[in-house]
Specification:
Mean pLDDT: 92
Strand order of the largest sheet: 1-2
Structural class: mainly alpha
Helix content: 25-40%
Oligomer: single chain
Radius of gyration: 13 Å
Low-confidence stretches: none
Distance between the termini: 45 Å
Largest sheet: 2 strands, antiparallel
Number of helices: 2
Order of helices and strands: EEHH
């Protein structure tokens, strides 16, 4: 299996130095991997409960905080 070289606009590094994939990259991949990616465009479809619900609540809270700013 060959690995695709990632473009610089496919990901960024967070404050902890971890790789974070962009929503566009994840959407182009075509499915939710179930790992709870920060920018998952699939609403964490394959993430098991209760983690899925926790991630959705966290995303909603962050969205509400962004609207207030």
């Amino acid at each position: 299996m060959s690995r695709k070289i990632l473009d610089d606009d496919d990901f960024y590094y967070n404050d902890s130095g971890l790789v974070v994939f962009t929503a566009e990259y994840l959407l182009n991949r075509g499915y939710c991997c179930g790992n709870g990616c920060k920018n998952c465009p699939y609403d964490y479809k394959n993430v098991p409960e209760p983690k899925r619900t926790q991630l959705l609540k966290k995303r909603e809270q962050e969205s509400n905080n962004d609207k207030k700013s």
